[in-house]
Each structure stands twice: as structure tokens, then as C-alpha cells.
Predict the 3D structure of the following.
Amino acid sequence: MTYAVETRGLSKMFGKTQALREVNLALEENKIYGLLGRNGAGKSTLIKLLTSQIFPTAGEVKVFGEVPFENAGVLSRICVIRENGTFLKEMKVKDTLQVAAAYYPNWDQSLADRMVKHFKLDLRKCYKALSLGMKSQLGMIVGLASRAPLTIFDEPYLGLDAPGRQFFYDLLLEEYMAYPRTFILATHLIDEVANLFEEVIILAGGTVKLQDQADRIKEKSFFISGPPA
């Protein structure tokens, strides 16, 4: 079976600090996964490894059955939206969307236009001139309109009010039903997004403490708490 994401013995050291330790995952295609954990649990490190931004110290990563490192074919099937650092600061919103449209083969311009209109996002502004909420809006637009087979959101809703976040959740589900793909959402807003997830992965201290169906976790009344990740 080919998984959307598969890791075996995945570990990462930064100097003497162990960021990830022996992480083993097998994420099926066309599911919505929640990646949960406290600050420093290893969520962002794991995402960087999946998207070939850093190299593992040990272990292996496969995305759609292939090693993603220096693999343009695999990387073009991944869209990752981080809470910062996703887009060029000097680039205008309009140009950012044009670059994304050229990069992602499944780009949906009509969806991007719909979201720009809903958020009333100024296409003429440079990324660095956007408010925190506007930056989150741009990330949501690129992430959903990319229609990338693996779409990862790392805390994508900073600066958004509750209605803005709900619009994103509703649209994500709408997109998922119409165009199934694998979503990974790293978040600390557990209560808001719990109903989105089919499976939940909980990281703590750089290791996977739990991976299970979201419904089973709810039945067990399993909760995590802590500062925003």
C-alpha cells in the first residue's frame, strides 16, 4: 500500500537537542489529520522533514511512496502553509497568487478569486504590509486553491476572528468532499477543529504519543493542554 506520508525511525537532532525521536507514521491518502502537541513537541520539525526543508538525522521519509528530498515531482504535489515564512515579503499578493498558480498543477483560480473576494484582500499590497490576519487569509487561499494532493497547514489561522476561521473550516470540508486529498492541520485550537479530523496524531517530547481515529479519542475523553504551539 502506498501512503500519502510514511516515516520510519525518523529522528532529528539540532546540535545536542533531540527534536524528533523514532517517529513512525503511516498516513493514508484522502484523509484529514490533526497534528497536535504543545510548543516544542516537534510538530514544525516534522512538517519541515516531510516537505524537504531539512534533512533527518536518522530514519526515512516517503511521500506518496517516494523520498521527497530533491524530488521535484513529489514536492509539486505538496503545499505547506506555515504561520510565517511561507511567502516572499516583497512580493505583492497578486504576484504571489500568480506564482502559486504556475507552480501547482491543480490550481483552482475560481476558488482563489472567491476567497479573495470574501476576505476583501487587497491584491496590490506587498506581503510585508499585510496584517497578521491578512497573511493568514493569503495562506488559506493558496493552501486550498492549490488542490495539492498533500496540503499541510501549520497554525494557519493566526490573527483571524472566529467567523474568519469558521469560513476556512467550512470551505476546507467543502473542498475535501468535492476534491478528496490528504490534509494535515497542525494546531492548538483543538476544540474548534476537533470535528474536522478523521485521525489525530499527538506529539510530545519529539515522539508520537498517540495516533488514532478521532472518534475513538473523543470516546476516551483524551485531552491535551498547554500553551499555543
